[in-house]
Amino acid sequence: MNHPLLVDVEQAVAGGDGAARQSMLDRVTDLFVGVADRIDDDQVEAFDVVLHRLIGTVGPQARASLSDRLADIPNAPRSVVRDLAYDAEVSVAAPILSRSTRLDEDDLVILAAERGQDHLHALAKRKSLSERVSDVLVTRGDRSVVHAVAANQGARLSGKGFETLVARSRTDDILRDTIGRRSDVPKACWPALRKPPAPVRSNPAAVCDEDEKRIAAWFAEDRITECLDALAGFSGTSVDRVRQAYEATAYEPLLYLVRSVGFGWGIFKLFLLSKPGPPPSPEDLRGAFAAFQAMPVATAMRVVTVGAHGAAPRTPR
C-alpha cells in the first residue's frame, strides 16, 4: 500500500511537536477508517506499523480517541488494539476492552487477572465472555463488576464460576435476583438462590441491634428494596403496603410501620432521607422526631394490624 500521507509519518515522529504528532495520528486514523472494509490483511498490517509508531508519541486523550474509533472495526490493527487494551489509563483501554473483537482470549484472561476494577468493569460489558474470562471476573471483581457479569447474558460461566457467583450473592439480594434471571444457572445452584422469607417480627423486642445495623448498611449502599422488604417482614405486612407508605407525601404511614416493630429514630430518619422527592427540611425532621417520640409502640402496632386486615389507618387526634 502506497499513500502520500504515510511518507510524512516518519517526519512527524522524528521532529514534530505534540500537536503535529496528534494531527498526524488523526489523519492516519481517518484514512484507515475510510478504507478498513476494503483492504486486505497485508494492508491492515501496514497501518498497524504506522499507527503503532504514532501512539507512543501522543497523550492519553489522543489514545482514548483512537481506541474509541477502532473498537468497533472488525479488522482493526491487531497490535495497536492490544497496546490500547493494556494501557494503564482506563479511558484509553475501556473502549477496546468492552467492544473490540480483535483481542485474543488469552489477553482477556491476563487483563482480567491483572488490571484494576475499572478495567474489569469494562471487560464485564463485552457482548460475549468466555468461561475463562468470566470466572476470573467474578473472583477478582468488586460488587459492580460481579453485578455486570451476572447481568450479562453473553457471559458464560463454568460450574465453579457459578459457585463463586452464588457464594457472593449470599449477602447481596440484588445479585441473587440477577443470577436468578439467568437461563443457564446449573440446577445444583438453584437451592442457594431461593430467597428466604423475611423474618416476621410481631414482638418489637425481637428487633435487635444487628437488624438495625444491617438495614443501616443497606441504606449506605442505596439498597432501598432490601430495606423495604425487611420492614415488611418485621411488621408482618405486605411489601406493596410498605412501598405505598414509603412513597406517600406524608410521613405518618411510614411512622406507624417503623414504630410498630421497635426500630429507633435513626432508622426512621434513614427512611425519611431516602424517600423519593425533595429531602425533608430541618423543620420537617424536627416535626417527625417529635411525632416519633410521641407515638406509643402499642398504638403503632394496633394501627398496622388493622391496616393489614384491610382497614385504612387513621391519624390519631
Can you characterise this structure?
The chain has 317 residues and is an all-alpha fold. Helices cover 66% and strands 0% of the residues. It contains 21 helices and no strands. It has helices spanning 4-7, 9-15, 18-35, 41-55, 60-70, 78-85, 90-99, 105-114, 117-124, 131-140, 143-151, 159-168, 173-180, 190-193, 209-220, 224-235, 239-247, 252-260, 265-274, 282-294, 297-308. The chain is elongated, with a radius of gyration of 28 Å. The protein starts with a helix and ends in a 9-residue tail after the last helix. The model is unreliable at 200-206 and 309-317 (pLDDT under 50).
Extended strand count: 0
Percent helix range:
55-70%
Q: Which overall shape is indicated by the principal axes computed on the Cα atoms?
A: elongated
Mean pLDDT equals 85
Low-confidence stretches: 200-206, 309-317
* Strand coverage percent: under 5%
Q: Give the H and E element order.
A: HHHHHHHHHHHHHHHHHHHHH
Q: What is Rg? A: 28 Å
Structural class, from helix and strand content? mainly alpha
- Helix count from the secondary structure assignment: 21
Largest sheet: none
Measured between the Cα atoms of the first and last residue, the distance is 89 Å
